[in-house]
Amino acid sequence: MRGTPPAGSVDEVEALKREAGIAACSFVRSGMKLGLGTGSTVRYTVLEIGRRIAEEGLEVVGVPTSEATKALSESLGIPLLTLEAAGELDLTIDGADEFDSNLDLIKGGGGALTREKRVAEASKAMLVVADDRKQVDVLGAFDLPMEVIASDWEAVRDRMLEICPGEVRLRGGDAPYLTDNGGYILDCEFGPTISDPSKLEELILSVDGVVEVGLFVGMCDAVVMATPSEVLTIVKEDGRLD
């Protein structure tokens, strides 16, 4: 899988992830219903929410986007609801594999894209946490993931090979990666640039057997981004974030 190029040591990158994840919690207030994302950066957000509940009396409920986030949240004592029980959420905090100047995203490197998108769609606002390696001018350097019905993956792959300019790979190969929903993931080289993410999303979702695609277009309202020198909050001009 093509992905984010390395920059700095592992410890330096991990420190940036931690800074971004914790900084995002400045937008969290008591009484909120939160979408809790999946991934190595937003993990620090979940840890900080758990700390604030235990030490500061923060009162929130969360809707996890994966079984991994659910397990972590439960271990920290974060009250959880299903999306169906929660209804509209105040804020979703999640990570991203790439974000561009429009704050459109590629997500799905962690395999939770379907639940992540459903939770984000149910939220009043979406906040992304990332380090500066994830910022790009145009989406597409990161392989585009899509969740597919497991029994249909070969037919979907064949269709993707007709429209994708690069390789199409089954994640896990001979031992396919299985999502929390029981689906497979195809990683597709649509880059190095995706000129019209919205049009591509519509095209991919029209293919039988595709459950969801990791393009999040017009959904993100702000990004908390850690750089080696500072933590920045990039807010969409017409965004919904309070």
From TrEMBL:
Single Gene Ontology MF annotation: ribose-5-phosphate isomerase activity
Binding site residues for substrate: T38, G39, S40, T41, D94, G95, A96, D97, K107, G108, G109, G110, K134
Annotated catalysed reactions: aldehydo-D-ribose 5-phosphate = D-ribulose 5-phosphate
Catalytic EC class: isomerase
InterPro entries xref list: NagB/RpiA_transferase-like (IPR037171), Ribose5P_isomerase_typA_subgr (IPR020672), Ribose5P_isomerase_type_A (IPR004788)
Pfam families: Rib_5-P_isom_A
Function: Catalyzes the reversible conversion of ribose-5-phosphate to ribulose 5-phosphate.
HAMAP family the record matches: Rib_5P_isom_A (MF_00170)
Protein name, as recorded: Ribose-5-phosphate isomerase A
Source species: uncultured marine group II/III euryarchaeote SAT1000_42_F11
